[in-house]
Design goal:
Distance between the termini: 65 Å
Shape: elongated
Radius of gyration: 25 Å
Structural class: alpha/beta
Number of strands: 9
Oligomer: single chain
Length: about 300
Amino acid sequence: MAAASGVSRATVSFVLNDDPHQTISAATRDRVKQTARELGYVPHGVARALREGSSRVVVLNIDVGMEGHYSRSYIQGLDAELTAHDHVLLVRHGRHTPQSTQQVLDVIAPRAVIRFGETYLTGRELDDLGGGWRDGLAAHAAMQLRHLVEHGHTEVAVALPHTESPLAATRLRFTGQAARDLGVRAPRTFVSPPGRTACAEAVRALLKGAPEVTAVAGFNDDVALRILMALLDLGRRVPDDVAVIGFDDNGYGAYTTPGLTSVHVDAEAHGRLSARLALHLDTDGLRPPPARVVVRESV
């Protein structure tokens, strides 16, 4: 490459590594980069990792039960921001143990390992930008309940997924605290099975045992859409008899009748922010926009 570009090997190295401490003319940089493209130059990942002390791979661990619309959008933002900074994203789904994580560290020496949802849940690293009661899971769980209370619903039930979720206990704790702050009774809970008939029976049992319930808050939109269908199957009018609100706004609620009201969170922005934090880069200008209630007809 140096011979083809008509420059020294050191200059080629400075250009390809974008060394900020070297003064190289724009014309020379362009010539070297053009030569790299023509010769099909590809950085040697192992050699680079040895030189830099780590690879340019960032690992994201997603635990079982954490997948959903938020995680998909989060990954899009995380991947885009890492790509912009010449890094590659590796996503690991499933159950992660210290031993399995150490194997990854030993094999690829990643630049960083991110546990999905950690900053969103706790906000420790973002000064509550990505977690907690200002603009995190706690605040958004409260937003879901507050929307129902503001529409006159003081007896609420929370519909949980049929599969185990690491977030379930945390969400219920946040919702319970929000209920106390709003001066209403803590919502009762029930599980919504995936089968249409089974879900309808679960909703029937809920309303029979607690006829005072006038609204159901879904753990996510997938669950809320099942509840919406179950209520219609039971001949209950939504929202006149029972209101329904989702969480995470996966987009499908816009195509139901009635349309599903939901809480929208900009997960892609959270992903970009996590990428900057993992690479120890400036996060100015990447503050995620506030969550909002997407108002449709189900409340």
